[in-house]
């Protein structure tokens, strides 16, 4: 399933936050969205997953017109791992993950054996099978994030949006989450704050600044010291990391 965002603009009262953004994620492509804090990444992603209504523009998941479709129909295709995952009511970890099955169920349909085994499988994938009966609110930020990922895995989406999914995680779980997501082999659009991880995992990047797409391309083509300097307002040198063969970035003092 592919994603097409066409001339999307979002405003809050009179302030334009996302300005005429167009982007494309092809089937099975892992696409990263990078840019400084406040440039509009989360706002763009929220308008794609229907939490915010854009002022203008279109969003398509393959042939599905997201703006004109019900949340349930979109949720059968699209999984979302958002940035903040606090709950006012408490649920167990298993209950949280089981919610991922909801878009596929009728109104009064209860979970069957297949749902339960999908839920157990998702918990195993994120190494939380031992926490199934714990209360969600009692978990650490990183564990919560893995529960949310498990819920999305249980949803079996055909496309996934992630908003800085590794924010609360130590490096082992950052890599675990990115590896799990990459192996799904579906289209992914992910806002990522770590540029070297973005370069490592993404097939293609969109760079946002002030609500606009400032650059796009393959990580190795666009993540130059000039672009990083201009977009993030830091000076740095880039190099080929001798261990990974991938992009290395050495940050010098901020200008
Ligand atoms: P990013 O995810 O790139 O850090 P955001 O999309 O969260 O950026 O925010 C972009 C800008 O939009 C920020 O200046 C933020 O304060 C503003 N903003 C976000 N949500 C709202 C809102 N609901 N009302 C007004 N301004 C908002
Ligand atoms: Mg954000």
TrEMBL record:
Pfam families: ABC_tran. The keyword Nucleotide-binding applies. Residues 3-235 form the ABC transporter domain. Keywords: ATP-binding, Nucleotide-binding. It comes from the Bacteria. InterPro entries: AAA+_ATPase, ABC_transporter-like_ATP-bd, ABC_transporter-like_CS, P-loop_NTPase. The keyword ATP-binding applies. CDD domains: ABC_Iron-Siderophores_B12_Hemin. GO terms for molecular function: ATP binding. This is Ferric enterobactin transport ATP-binding protein FepC.
């Amino acid at each position: 399933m592919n994603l097409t965002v066409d001339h999307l603009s979002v405003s809050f009262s009179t302030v334009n936050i996302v300005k005429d953004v167009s982007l494309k994620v092809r089937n099975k492509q892992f696409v990263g969205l990078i840019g400084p804090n406040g440039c509009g990444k989360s706002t763009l992603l929220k308008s794609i997953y229907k939490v915010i209504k854009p002022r203008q523009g279109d969003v398509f998941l393959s042939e599905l017109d997201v703006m004109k479709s019900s949340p349930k129909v979109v949720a059968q295709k699209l999984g979302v791992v958002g940035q903040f995952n606090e709950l006012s009511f408490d649920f167990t970890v298993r209950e949280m993950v089981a919610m991922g099955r909801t878009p596929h169920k009728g109104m009064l349909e209860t979970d069957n054996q297949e749902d339960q085994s999908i839920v157990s499988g998702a918990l195993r994938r994120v190494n939380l099978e031992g926490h199934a009966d714990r209360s969600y609110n009692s978990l650490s930020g990183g564990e919560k994030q893995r529960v949310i990922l498990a819920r999305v895995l249980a949803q079996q989406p055909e496309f996934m949006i992630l908003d800085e999914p590794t924010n609360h995680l130590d490096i082992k779980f950052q890599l675990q989450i990115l590896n799990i997501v990459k192996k799904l082999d579906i289209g992914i659009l992910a806002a990522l704050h770590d540029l070297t991880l973005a370069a490592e995992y993404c097939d293609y990047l969109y760079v946002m600044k002030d609500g606009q797409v400032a650059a796009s391309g393959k990580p190795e083509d666009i993540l130059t010291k000039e672009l990083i300097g201009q977009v993030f307002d830091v000076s740095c040198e880039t190099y080929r990391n001798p261990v990974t063969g991938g992009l290395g970035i050495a940050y010098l003092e901020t200008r």
